[in-house]
Amino acid sequence: MKNAFQVIAVDGVCSGVVQFPTAEDCLDWLQAISGNISSLTKHNVKKINRNFPVNQQIIYMGWVDEKEQDSVQDRMYSPKFLALRGSSLFKFSAPPVTTWDWTRAEKSFTLYEIMFKILKDNDLLDKRRHCFSVQTESGEDMFFSVELDCELLIWEKAFQTATFLEVERIQCKTYACIMESHLMGLTVDFGMGFVCFDAASKAVLWRYKFSQLKGSSDDGKSKIKFLFQNQDSKSIEAKELEFSNLFAVLHCIHAFFAAKVACLDPMFVESQGTATTAGFPSLSAISCNSQTPKLKYAT
């Protein structure tokens, strides 16, 4: 149905289905409501951010529908409120109102250890069209849907922005690993690249720049095989490491690579500087002007 929608308040009160004579009339109302929701959300985020330090600022937050695990029926979705704040993605049943509410999230995940992905046609699980997944540090996939295609773009940009800012803040991350039966440490460093060292002596065994990584593969369980190019001989050098937290490491490496690529885009870097100054990312360039069957309204 393209000429109807419903508004659901944060306390669960529903307007019921509001139907219009034409899709154009419905669209006019949807655009007005969407604009109001966007303005209220931005205003609310600015107020909340006054109570948080710079490294814990909210980047974006809003309603989504989460597909319940092992559910094969389209109706088995439940509303969730997601928030990208500081170093984490938070998942709530209801929007956080007080500072204490942030400590009571259903789940929270470290941003650079998860993977965001928009689902294309072949990846969709059911008839819902505007969906994305988040793969956690344990390899679990969570599936979410939104009402509009433009909302997908907003969430994608929000994840990119939040992850970039966190990688820029921490600069490096070290993971324990095993190489040739010896306990090692692998540091992913924003400036230097990859550094592998002996866990006991701290002696550096090898280091490579990001640009020297020419390929990699993993067994889906614990092992990653890196293919680095030697700067002098140009030959390929293989390094196999074993981790207890494979997906966290893979996602972290991806996050650092994405941040390095983003640094090559002057427009992206400039937008991040503006976002940090303003206290809220510049996501307004993407507008929701498409038709939708319903909206969720966070008051």
Give an overview in words.
With 299 residues, the chain is of the alpha+beta class. It folds into two domains: 4-170, Pleckstrin-homology domain (PH domain)/Phosphotyrosine-binding domain (PTB) (PH-domain like, Roll); 172-264, PH-domain like (Roll), CATH 2.30.29. It is built from four helices and 18 strands. The chain has a seven-stranded antiparallel β-sheet with strand order 7-6-5-4-10-9-8. The protein has a four-stranded antiparallel β-sheet with strand order 11-12-13-14. Strands 15-16-17 form a three-stranded antiparallel β-sheet, with no helix packed on it. The longest helix is centred in the first third of the chain and has 27 residues, at 23-49. It is elongated, with a radius of gyration of 22 Å.
The proportion of residues forming helix, as a percent range, comes to: 25-40%
Mind telling me which CATH architecture of the largest domain this is?
A: Roll
Radius of gyration: 22 Å
* Helical/strand content category: alpha+beta
CATH topology descriptor of the largest domain: PH-domain like
Tell me the major beta sheet.
7 strands, antiparallel
**Helix and strand succession?**
EEEHEEEEEEEHEEEEEEEHHE
Q: Structurally, how many domains make up the residues?
A: 2
**What is the percentage of strand-forming residues?**
25-35%
* CATH homologous superfamily label of the largest domain: Pleckstrin-homology domain (PH domain)/Phosphotyrosine-binding domain (PTB)
CATH class of the largest domain: Mainly Beta
Terminal CA distance: 26 Å
GO molecular function, one term: structural molecule activity
Protein name: Syntrophin gamma 1
Domain PH: 1-38, 57-164
Subcellular location: Cytoplasm
